[in-house]
């Protein structure tokens, strides 16, 4: 057999440090774009030996298929060790190892942690670990018993706060008053947000910043930083464990669904950009609620459009929703204060005549300025609270679609991120659904319809819906 060495590829210093970690639980934490998934895949391929079965775990099936699995294949091909792969029943890759053998890795979702139980593994890799729940980590850790040996647990992650399980997996708090006394030395103690911590036994975490990665486009850091508050940038770009009190949604709260039930009430809520093409987005979010109270974020239509293009998209979306759901999708469009907002809302309602369309007049502080960035204001935060409560309780589902990644990125950074159009659309729709306003059940039976406003032809549009339903 011809001796094989994995083809060398360029890595930077912090990635090399992660390769060299020998502790059983090894982590690479850093800002966005610092190459976490890439180096995780690379280390697995370097570390495995002939006959080793590995397991990679990602937060959900979307991350498996869009990030972890394809990145692993990309790295294997770049290093010249790739052999073959299959996509079902679970994605799996085979590659040649340093000792002239063959290893394989199976890619699993952490959505149902108990399904991770099973055969012993030579090693595990948890990608985007801070988005997985702790149960997935503890169950997967117990699979590290291949051939009577405990292999490594690798984790690649963007940091969350100090209360998150990923932080506690690597650090334990030290009473700073005891440092230097009673045999407690200062060796290895790190200070994080004013508190002393010591690395846990058998674990080590390598920390990298976005700016540490020399392979990124030169404008990447500045473009991303321009959308974050300084607090969020410290977490998402500097890779620090920051306790952000304002963060309201966590990715692990959302479960994925293939589709929303037909028997549900639906609202498409539009948040329109104030300055089309000027960096702001318009978004129409379709939200469904079934008779059990489960909420489904079903679809997002979003873009930076001119007034004319935006109106065309809104009309096309209304017609598509109507065809799919028989005219049962109720449309709301947000109107902020001022005469110009009223005029534009009137135009939208007239344009969508024939569809059940209403105006939602909102008030309160819509934005705030922090470190020169325009961020969502108190009023938007208050309107988001009910949906956040439902998400934390496990009552919100995300219907799988190409828009999922952008939506989750935005809602999980709210309200420390400049973009909030999808959050406004989702929370606006949920708040209307929770009050039972203007909606049908999704069957031939008409449910509660409350004519809350006669403005802008809303009563006429509602009567047309009633007439259409009566003829069935």
Shape: globular
What low-confidence regions span 5 or more consecutive residues with pLDDT below 50?
Answer: 442-461
Give the N-terminus to C-terminus distance in angstroms. Answer: 74 Å
Radius of gyration: 25 Å
Q: In order across it, which strands form the biggest sheet?
A: 3-4-5-2-6-7-1-11
CATH class category of the largest domain: Alpha Beta
CATH topology of the largest domain: Nucleotidyltransferase, domain 5
Mean pLDDT: 85
Specify the biggest β-sheet.
Answer: 8 strands, mixed
CATH architectural arrangement of the largest domain: 2-Layer Sandwich
**Number of separate helices:** 13
Q: Beta fraction of the residues?
A: 15-25%
Number of spatially distinct domains: 2
Secondary structural class: alpha/beta
- How many β strands by DSSP? 20
What level of helicity do the residues show?
25-40%
Descriptive account of the structure:
This protein has helices spanning 13-20, 36-47, 61-79, 134-141, 165-170, 220-225, 230-236, 307-325, 339-351, 378-392, 404-413, 421-434, 458-470, and strands at 25-30, 53-58, 82-86, 92-96, 102-109, 123-127, 153-157, 171-174, 190-192, 195-199, 203-208, 255-257, 264-271, 282-290, 295-303, 330-335, 357-361, 367-370, 373-376, 396-399. By secondary structure, the protein is α/β, with parallel strands linked by helices. The chain has 2 domains: 13-212, P-loop containing nucleotide triphosphate hydrolases (Rossmann fold); 251-470, 2-Layer Sandwich (Nucleotidyltransferase, domain 5). The longest helix has 19 residues, at 61-79.
